[in-house]
């Protein structure tokens, strides 16, 4: 039965290894992105659509509360005006290039200005929003400017069009309504904080995505650059330095997708480096061979093992695995040292070989998780590293070991990778209609956003 050995390293050893590696691996001279995303105008329209229920709930609670601000213009009537109903009819989010977003909300109000009458009013809110970086490294939506107007609209009792000279067609005191706009941003800001949460990769390895700066706003969308960090056993690990700085590719002029994620080749290399440090790739591989069967090929083995026992392989990485991305193709370069031996619990090794392999990879996305699977070994190179049984021809080692390695290494890699890695996202939203395109040095993931029905009641603008 296949067994993946992750016993490797306890916390103290990992910490010591991390400190040691920090001396060997150059630290990032400057923070640089290795992935990012572009929220398109289509994505903004979807967010506005699913935000209407939340916006309506917030405005209803605030405007219909006993302590609601006095919205209507002053009048000589002694009775207090009362808002009976609040309905958001239109909500839109549009891009303001190089600045931020423009929020436009139209709200229908049913107002009782006097005990014996009601009026239909239209409240229009226009606010400019921008995204700031907080000292904690989170993104936060902030209101830049806000303007609110109120006007009377045609009612069933009055067939004439609304009158521009009506006393009700006046501008509202901004100090009374615009604080309500700030309340609308509380929930989306909570969601934005989830972008920088730590997500598990394995039980002792976590990934985190950190914004490097406030997003860039253009006609194509909202572009955010992220830097990936990993923790192993609760300690941040130093990652290899990318030989080529990564920048978000230019967005398509008109993308029908809500969101495009870009993941650099270095992002994947860092992922596999972190998994290696976490001991996730330490492999114990059973073989169909026995010591007696191998002794028929390697005669000196007969003196090492008096009994016929199963032969086992233990594979460790002598160098970190490396992801290689070409047009339409992804591969993982593996640099293994395989110890061939027998005995349990301690393996008595009689031959060690260096094995370099290249495994083709398949990429897919479900929910917000990217799954990586090793499809097959595309090429390999094997050489003798050490031997306690004298010289062994490489051709004989290939005959004895390669069939097992070619089958078992991808299978055990997939045991580690089967859970995938969680992609940058905010809480509640998932990804649908996913299209993955592999380019040289980076992967593009185009997708739509989806808010599950159970989360709809708490939907918010992002």
TrEMBL record:
The entry's keywords: Signal
Organism: Patagioenas fasciata monilis
Full protein name: BPI fold-containing family B member 2
Signal sequence, start to end: 1-29
Alphabetical list of SMART domains matching this protein: BPI2
Domain Lipid-binding serum glycoprotein C-terminal: 253-447
MF term (GO), any: lipid binding
Top-level division of the source organism's lineage: Eukaryota
